[in-house]
C-alpha cells in the first residue's frame, strides 16, 4: 500500500519508501513509509520499540537499511552519517543531549564548523561565533548567554541550544525526538512557537513524542507505527486521543489511569521548613499521610527534585526538620534514610538509577543485600538472592528473559520496574518517586500507576514528582506546587485544574 | 544474507576469543619446537610462577573493577619484601641491634599492615578527594620507592641487597609441598590457592563484593541505593594493599633476596593479566576465575618465549603488544555499535 502523492509531489520534502531493517532475530522495520510535506509538522508515534528511532537512524545513516529508498525533494539520497545529513539540510534534535558540557554555548553551536578569522587563516573567530549565536538566539527568542558554560545550565536550556543549532544549519527537515521530556509547560510553549515559525518558513518537521496532547496541538499529520510496521497516516484534525492510543497499542485502552481506591489515613511524614544548602529550596513544610499519593508539581527548576533529594539526604540541608510517626529522623545520607524506611526513585534513570552492565538480580538486590545472608553468617545466600529477584520480577510484572540479563537490554519501563522492586525490598514506608514514568510508553505507564496505587493501598506514603500534570491529577490525592524553590501552594487533585496548578507554579518563578 | 550473518558470527567468535586462540597456537608451536615445554618440570615451573604472581593480580583486579588502577603495587611489594628480608634474616644489617630473626607470623602481619596502610592512603585519596586512581597511585608509588631507599640505608646496610635469609622463612615459603615425578611443588602455591579462594568468597559472597561491583558500574546510583561508596573504595584499595604485602612476604623468600628493585613493574603484568582475564576497565565487570586464567596464560607465553630463547629485550615489546591487543578486544564488547 502506497500513498499517492503524484499531484502534490512538488510539496513533498522527504519521502521514505519501503524501508526494511532486520537485526539478528528481529524485524525492526518492515516496509515502512513516511512522507513529510513542506510547511507541515508530521508527528511520528508509537510505543517504545515500535521502530520510530530505528526509522530515524536509517534516515541519518546511523543504521544502514536493508532495503527501501529515501528521497529528499525528489532526489534519491542515502546519507552515510548524520554529518552528511546535516549538510544536506536534514537535522535532528536528540532526546539524549550529546553536548560538550564543559564548553560554552557557542562552542557547542559551532562545533565541527568553527568560523575562521579569514579563509586563509586557521584561527577560529570567537567574535563571529558570538555575534551569530546572539543573532540566532534573538531570532528564536532564546534568552541564554552564548558564553555560558553548558554544565551550568538546566537541561531545558541546553535543549533550546540544541534546537537553535539545528535551526542554524538552515535545515529543511528537522526531527525532534521527544523534545519536551525535560521541558516545563512554559518552555513547551516556547518550543511550539519556534516550531510554528519553522513551519511557516516552509520546513518539514518530524515530531516524535509520547505526549498525546502535544501531538494533537502541534501536528498537521500523524504517522503511527507498531512493532516495526506502518499502521496509519492521518490528518491530525480528524484524530482523537483514544483513536491514537488504539492505533498505537492495537487494542482499546479505556482508561489512562487506574481506578483510585487507596484510603488516606493519619499523618505519617512531616517536613518542617526544609531549606537546602546548595540549591534554592527554601522553607518547605508539608504533611504526608499514610496511604496517600502526594504529587509535587512545578516548573523544571522549581526545586521539585531538590525537595526529594533533601528529604532523602543525598543533598546537603541548611535547615529544617523531618518527622516520621512524630519522631524526628535525621536522614543524613542515603543509608540512614533507607534505614529510616525512605526510598528514592531518581529522575535520571540511566545516570543515577540503573547499574547498566549488571544483571537484573544485582540491580534488584543492591539496596537490601544484608537481608540475604546465611543464618547468622555474613555471606550472601544465592538461593535467597534468586528468590527475592524472582519475587521482584513477578510482583512488578517485569518482562525479562532471565534474572541474569543485563538491565541495559530492557526497555525503560521494565528498567523502572526493576528499580521499583529494588526499593520495595528495602521495605519502605515513604516512597519518593521522581518522574517515575519519564520516557516510558503508554501501556507501561498504566502499570506503573497501578503499582503506585497498590503501594498506597498497602498503607505506604508515596510522594511523586512529575512534569505531566494530567498524570498528577489522575493518580494523586493532593498536589503540592513548587515555585522558585518554595512551596507555592497545595491543591486537591480531585477538584484542581491544570490552570490552577500553572498559576501557582508561576508564583515565585 | 544468512551466509553473511554466519560469517560475521564466526568472525565475532574468533575475535572475542582471539587471546585464547593466539595462546593455544603459541603453545602448539612452542611444543613442536621444544617438546620439553610440556614436560613436568616446565609445567610445575609455570604453575609456581603463576601462583607467585597471582595475589598481586587479585588485588589490582578490584581496583580495575572500580574503573581505577593501582600502579603503586610493585613498589609496595618491594617495600614489604625488604621489610620481610630485613627482619627474617641471619645478618642484621638494617637493624644491627637485633640478634634473632623476628617471629614469622608477626612479620607477616606487619607487612600486611604496611600494605593496608598504603592501600588506605590510596583509597582515601580516591574516595575523599575524587582523584583519579592513576594520579593517586603514581604519587604513592614515588613515596613508597623513597621509603624503600631510605629503609635500605638504615643501620649498616648502606643500600645493599638484603640476603642471608633465615632458614625457617625460606622453608615456610619455598619448602616442598609435594613432589610430582621428582619435581618439587613449592608451598607458596598452596598459599596462593588459599588467597584465591578467600578473594573469590569476598567478591561473590559478601555485601562488600557486590557493593564493589555496583560502585564500579555506577557510582552515583550506588550512592542513592545506600551503598557506602567511600568505605567501599577504601576497602578495595586496602584489600589490594594487603595482597601486595603478602606478595612481598612471599617474594622475599622466593627470590632469596630483596633490594630496591624488587617488585619493579609487577603491576604491569598484573594489570595485563586482569585485562586478558576479562576484568574490564569499563568498570563493574570481572571474575576471580578470569584473573587466574589471565595470569596463567601470560605466564605460559613468557615461559614459552624463554623456551624459544627469545631475546629478553624483545619480551617487553611482546608484553606491550599483548596488553594493547587484549584491551582492544575487550573494549569491542562494550562499544555500542552504530
Task: Show the helix and strand layout.
The complex is a heterodimer of chains A (509) and B (338).
Chain A lengths: L11 E12 L2 E12 L2 E6 L6 H8 L7 E6 L2 E3 L4 H6 L2 E4 L11 H5 L6 E3 L2 E4 L1 H14 L15 H14 L4 E5 L7 H16 L3 E5 L3 H7 L2 E6 L2 E7 L5 H9 L17 E10 L7 E6 L3 E6 L5 H9 L4 E8 L2 E3 L4 H6 L2 E4 L3 H5 L6 H6 L7 E2 L2 E4 L1 H15 L15 H13 L5 E5 L7 H16 L3 E5 L3 H7 L2 E6 L2 E7 L5 H8 L4
Parallel strand pairs in A: 3-10, 3-11, 6-9, 9-10, 15-22, 15-23, 18-21, 21-22
Antiparallel strand pairs in A: 1-2, 1-4, 4-5, 7-8, 11-12, 13-14, 13-16, 16-17, 19-20, 23-24
Chain B lengths: L1 H15 L1 H16 L6 H26 L7 H15 L16 H26 L3 H21 L13 H8 L1 E5 L2 E4 L1 H18 L1 H11 L1 H6 L4 H27 L10 H11 L11 H20 L4 H21 L6
Antiparallel strand pairs in B: 1-2
Helix pairs in contact in B: 2-13, 3-8, 3-11, 3-12, 3-13, 4-5, 4-6, 4-11, 5-6, 5-11, 8-9, 9-11, 12-13, 12-14
* Biggest protein-protein contact in the assembly: A-B, 30 and 27 residues
Q: In this structure, how is the largest beta sheet of chain A organized?
A: 6 strands, mixed
What does the average pLDDT of chain A come to? 88
Remind me, CATH topology of the largest domain in chain A?
A: Rossmann fold
* CATH-defined fold name of chain B: ABC transporter involved in vitamin B12 uptake, BtuC
At CATH level 2, the architecture of chain B is: Orthogonal Bundle
Measure the end-to-end span of chain A: 51 Å
Rg over CA atoms of chain A: 24 Å
The figure for the number of domains of chain A is 4
Derived structural class of chain B: mainly alpha
CATH class of chain B: Mainly Alpha
Strand order, sheet with most strands of chain A = 6-9-10-3-11-12
> Which strand-content bin applies to the residues of chain B?
under 5%
What percent of residues of chain A are in strands?
25-35%
> How many H/I helical runs of chain A?
17
**Shape of chain B, please?**
globular
Count the strands of chain A?
24
Amino acid at each position: 500500500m502506497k500513498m499517492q502523492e503524484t499531484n502534490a509531489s512538488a510539496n513533498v520534502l522527504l519521502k521514505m519508501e519501503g524501508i526494511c531493517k532486520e537485526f539478528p532475530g528481529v524485524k525492526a522495520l518492515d516496509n515502512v513509509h513516511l512522507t513529510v510535506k513542506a510547511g507541515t509538522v508530521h508527528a511520528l508515534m508509537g510505543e517504545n520499540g515500535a521502530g520510530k528511532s530505528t526509522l530515524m537512524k536509517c534516515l541519518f545513516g546511523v543504521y544502514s537499511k536493508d532495503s527501501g529508498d529515501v528521497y529528499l525533494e525528489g532526489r534519491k539520497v542515502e546519507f552515510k552519517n548524520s554529518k552528511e545529513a546535516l549538510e544536506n539540510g536534514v537535522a535532528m534534535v536528540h532526546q539524549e543531549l550529546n553536548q560538550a558540557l564543559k564548553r560554552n554555548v557557542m562552542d557547542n553551536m559551532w562545533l565541527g564548523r568553527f568560523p575562521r578569522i579569514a579563509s586563509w587563516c586557521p584561527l577560529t573567530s570567537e567574535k563571529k561565533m558570538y555575534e551569530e549565536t546572539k543573532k540566532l538566539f534573538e531570532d528564536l527568542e532564546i534568552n541564554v548567554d552564548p558564553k555560558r558554560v553548558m554544565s551550568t545550565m538546566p537541561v531545558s536550556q541546553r535543549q533550546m541550544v540544541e534546537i537553535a543549532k539545528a535551526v542554524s544549519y538552515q535545515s529543511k527537515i528537522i526531527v525532534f525526538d521527544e523534545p519536551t521530556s525535560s521541558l516545563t509547560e512554559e518552555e513547551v510553549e516556547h518550543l511550539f512557537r519556534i516550531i510554528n515559525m519553522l513551519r511557516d518558513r516552509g520546513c518539514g518537521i518530524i515530531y516524535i513524542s509520547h505526549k498525546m496532547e502535544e501531538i494533537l496541538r502541534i501536528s498537521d499529520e500523524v504517522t503511527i507505527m507498531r512493532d516495526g510496521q506502518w499502521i496509519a497516516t492521518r490528518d491530525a484534525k480528524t484524530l482523537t486521543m483514544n483513536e491514537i492510543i488504539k492505533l498505537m497499542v492495537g487494542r482499546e485502552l479505556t482508561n489512562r489511569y487506574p481506578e483510585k481506591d487507596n484510603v488516606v489515613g493519619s499523618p505519617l511524614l512531616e517536613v518542617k521548613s526544609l531549606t537546602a544548602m546548595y540549591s534554592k529550596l527554601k522553607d518547605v513544610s508539608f504533611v504526608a499521610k499514610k496511604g496517600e499519593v502526594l504529587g509535587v508539581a512545578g516548573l523544571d527548576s522549581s526545586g521539585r527534585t531538590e525537595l526529594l533529594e533533601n528529604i532523602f539526604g543525598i543533598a546537603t540541608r541548611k535547615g529544617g526538620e523531618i518527622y516520621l510517626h512524630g519522631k524526628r529522623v535525621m536522614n543524613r545520607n542515603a543509608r540512614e534514610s533507607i534505614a529510616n524506611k525512605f526510598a528514592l526513585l531518581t529522575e535520571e534513570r540511566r545516570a543515577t538509577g540503573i547499574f547498566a552492565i549488571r544483571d537484573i538480580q544485582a540491580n534488584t538486590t543492591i539496596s537490601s543485600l544484608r537481608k540475604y545472608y546465611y543464618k547468622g553468617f555474613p555471606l550472601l545466600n544465592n538461593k535467597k538472592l534468586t528468590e527475592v529477584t524472582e519475587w521482584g520480577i513477578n510482583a512488578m510484572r517485569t518482562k525479562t528473559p532471565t534474572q541474569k540479563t543485563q538491565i541495559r537490554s530492557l526497555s525503560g519501563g521494565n528498567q523502572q520496574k526493576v528499580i521499583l522492586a529494588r526499593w520495595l525490598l528495602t521495605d519502605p514506608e515513604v516512597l519518593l518517586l521522581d518522574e517515575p514514568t519519564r520516557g516510558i510508553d503508554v501501556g507501561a505507564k498504566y502499570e506503573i500507576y497501578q503499582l503506585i496505587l497498590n503501594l498506597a493501598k498497602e498503607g505506604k506514603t508515596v510522594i511523586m514528582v512529575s512534569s505531566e500534570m494530567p498524570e498528577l491529577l489522575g493518580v494523586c490525592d493532593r498536589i503540592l506546587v513548587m515555585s522558585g524553590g518554595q512551596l507555592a501552594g497545595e491543591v486537591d487533585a480531585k477538584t484542581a485544574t491544570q490552570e490552577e496548578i500553572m498559576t501557582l507554579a508561576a508564583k515565585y518563578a | 544474507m544468512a551466509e553473511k550473518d554466519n560469517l560475521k558470527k564466526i568472525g565475532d567468535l574468533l575475535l572475542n576469543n582471539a587471546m585464547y586462540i593466539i595462546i593455544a597456537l603459541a603453545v602448539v608451536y612452542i611444543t613442536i619446537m621444544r617438546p620439553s615445554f610440556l614436560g613436568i618440570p616446565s609445567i610445575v615451573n609455570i604453575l609456581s610462577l603463576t601462583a607467585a604472581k597471582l595475589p598481586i593480580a587479585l588485588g589490582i583486579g578490584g581496583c580495575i573493577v572500580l574503573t581505577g588502577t593501582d600502579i603503586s603495587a610493585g613498589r609496595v611489594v618491594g617495600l614489604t619484601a625488604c621489610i620481610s628480608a630485613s627482619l627474617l634474616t641471619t645478618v642484621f644489617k638494617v637493624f644491627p641491634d637485633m640478634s634473632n630473626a623476628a617471629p614469622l607470623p608477626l612479620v607477616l602481619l606487619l607487612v600486611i599492615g604496611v600494605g593496608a596502610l598504603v592501600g588506605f592512603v590510596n583509597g582515601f585519596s580516591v574516595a575523599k578527594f575524587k582523584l583519579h586512581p592513576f594520579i593517586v597511585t603514581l604519587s604513592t608509588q614515588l613515596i613508597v620507592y623513597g621509603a624503600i631507599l631510605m629503609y635500605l640505608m638504615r643501620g649498616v646496610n648502606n643500600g645493599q641487597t638484603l640476603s642471608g635469609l633465615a632458614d625457617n622463612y625460606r622453608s615456610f615459603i619455598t619448602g616442598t609441598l609435594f613432589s610430582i615425578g621428582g619435581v618439587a611443588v613449592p608451598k607458596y602455591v598452596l598459599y596462593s590457592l588459599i588467597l584465591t579462594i578467600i578473594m573469590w568468597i569476598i567478591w561473590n559472597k559478601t555485601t562488600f563484593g557486590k557493593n564493589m561491583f555496583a560502585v564500579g558500574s555506577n557510582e552515583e546510583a550506588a550512592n542513592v541505593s545506600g551503598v557506602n561508596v567511600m568505605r567501599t573504595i577504601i576497602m578495595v584499595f586496602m584489600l589490594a594493599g594487603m595482597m601486595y604485602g603478602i606478595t612481598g612476604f612471599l617474594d622475599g623468600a622466593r627470590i632469596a633476596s630483596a633490594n630496591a628493585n624488587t617488585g619493579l613493574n609487577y603491576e604491569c603484568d598484573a594489570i595485563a593479566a586482569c585485562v586478558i582475564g576479562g576484568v574490564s576497565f569499563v568498570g563493574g565487570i570481572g571474575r576471580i576465575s578470569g584473573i587466574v586464567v589471565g595470569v596463567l596464560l601470560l605466564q605460559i607465553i613468557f615461559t614459552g618465549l624463554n623456551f624459544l630463547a627469545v631475546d629478553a629485550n624483545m619480551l617487553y615489546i611482546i608484553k606491550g603488544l599483548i596488553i594493547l591487543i587484549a584491551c582492544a578486544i575487550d573494549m569491542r564488547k562494550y562499544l555500542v555499535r552504530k
